[in-house]
Amino acid sequence: MTLPLEATLPKVQRASGVVVDVRALQAHDHASRGIGRYTFELITAIEQRDPTLVRAFVADPMFPMHEQMLRLLPTGKLRRSDDPEFTAHPPRVFHVTSPFVEGDRPAAILPEWARGTDTFVVATVYDLIPARFPEIYLSDPTIASIYHARHEFLRTCDSLFAISEATKMDFSELLGIPADRVVTIHGAAAPQFSSLPAAEAEQGGPATEEDLRHRVLKRYGGTTDQATGYVLCPTGAEWRKNLDRLLQAWAALSPALRTSYPLVVQCHLQPDAREHLLARSAELGIAAQVVFTGAVSDAELIDLLRGATLVVFPSLYEGLGLPILEAQACGAAVICGDNSSLRELVSDPSARFDAESVPDIASVIERFLLDPRARQELATTAVDKRYQWSEVARLVADTYKKYLDAPFDSEVIAAAQESGVVSRPFRLALASPMPPQLCGPAGYFADLVKYLPDLCELTVFTSADPLEVQLPREVRVERLDALEVIEAIEGPFDEVLYFLGNSEFHIAELLQLQRRPGAVFLHDARLTILYTEMHRRYPNLMDETFGQALHRMYPGRYPAPMGGAQYLPLDEEGVFGVLMVADVARLATRLFVHAEHAADLIELDCGRRAEVLFPIPCPVAEQSEAERHDAPAESHPEKSTGRPLIASFGFVSPAKRSELLVDLMQDLPQADLALVGHSGESFLEDLRTAAQAQGTADQVTVTGKVASSEYQDWLSKTTIAVQLRLFSNGESSASVGETLAAGIPTVVTDIGTFSEYPDDTVVKLPRNVSRLELAKALSDLLADEPRLAALSAAGRAYAARNTYQLAAEKLSSELSQSALNSGT
Question: Could you tell me the pTM of the whole model?
Answer without folding.
Answer: 0.65
